[in-house]
């Protein structure tokens, strides 16, 4: 059955591939980008299929812009996927911190997905199986001790906690919320040495979200549908 998905952060990387695969399998997609230039670039990348994709423009640091976009979307959604994220400053060890850049990264990676979830929540009303997917990373897992990505990891760890809180709050409304890890993926962020391509990662993420029910809410899952330790 065809569903309506929001993919936030869709002009490149994993988000773009999610859009491509959703179109190919016949789902309806609304894609968000940050500005009109990115909107035009996305249309060119998706040609000749782009006519099927509605685009919304917002920066996930701007709650008013996200809310306005959510209200303007053409139809209600089945799935809201807050995929947008950034890696932040380099280097980023705890003793060599760019505090301003670190705060900005929390706004993008931690609060950004929450802004998207909150703003689009009313648009999930009426969905048979409403789901919210928040793009995290296994670098946010307390079990992962990589000191070289301190702030990025902390933003994703904090996002995981918010995902858990949101899942608890929305469970009575029948809305499923999960945090996801896409694997280490060859994108601008993942770099050329990543072992996984966007095709496999996106296909796995879609299959994982397809299979979600309320019983899974509050989980931290990878693109294979496996549980990631908190
Ligand atoms: N690649 C990996 O190995 C990997 C591993 C674990 C988790 N992840 C997560 O997966 C997600 C996608 O990563 P990716 O590898 O596809 O990264 P990417 O190629 O760098 O793409 C990032 C996307 O997020 C958008 N974005 C960044 N800041 C934004 C903001 N403030 N508001 C709205 N959109 C914003 C970008 O838009 P612009 O083009 O306008 O910047 C772009 O569409 C991220 O959340 C990332 O943390 C990736």
UniProtKB/TrEMBL annotation:
It comes from the Bacteria. Transmembrane segments: none annotated. InterPro entries: NAD(P)-bd_dom_sf, SDR_enzymes, SDR_fam. One of its GO terms (molecular function) is oxidoreductase activity, acting on the CH-OH group of donors, NAD or NADP as acceptor. Gene3D superfamilies: NAD(P)-binding Rossmann-like Domain. This is SDR family NAD(P)-dependent oxidoreductase. It comes from Methylocystis heyeri.
């Amino acid at each position: 059955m065809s569903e309506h998905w929001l993919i936030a952060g869709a002009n490149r990387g994993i988000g773009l591939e999610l859009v491509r695969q959703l179109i190919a399998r016949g789902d309806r997609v609304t894609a968000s980008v940050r500005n009109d230039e990115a909107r035009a670039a996305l249309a060119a990348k998706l040609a000749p299929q782009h006519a099927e994709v509605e685009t919304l423009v917002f920066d996930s640091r701007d709650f008013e812009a996200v809310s306005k976009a959510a209200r303007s979307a053409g139809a209600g959604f089945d799935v809201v996927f807050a995929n947008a994220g950034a890696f932040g400053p380099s280097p980023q060890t705890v003793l060599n911190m760019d505090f301003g850049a670190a705060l900005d990264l929390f706004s993008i990676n931690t609060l950004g997905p929450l802004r998207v979830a909150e703003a689009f929540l009313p648009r999930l009303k009426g969905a048979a199986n409403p789901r919210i997917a928040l793009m995290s990373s296994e670098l946010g897992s307390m079990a992962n001790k990589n000191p070289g990505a301190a702030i990025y990891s902390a933003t994703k760890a904090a996002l995981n906690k918010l995902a858990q809180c949101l899942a608890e709050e929305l469970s009575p409304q029948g809305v499923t919320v999960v945090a996801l890890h896409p694997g280490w993926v060859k994108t601008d962020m993942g770099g050329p040495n990543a072992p996984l391509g966007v095709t496999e990662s996106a296909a796995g993420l879609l299959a994982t979200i397809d299979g979600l029910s309320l019983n899974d809410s509050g989980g931290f899952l990878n693109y294979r549908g496996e549980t990631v330790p908190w």
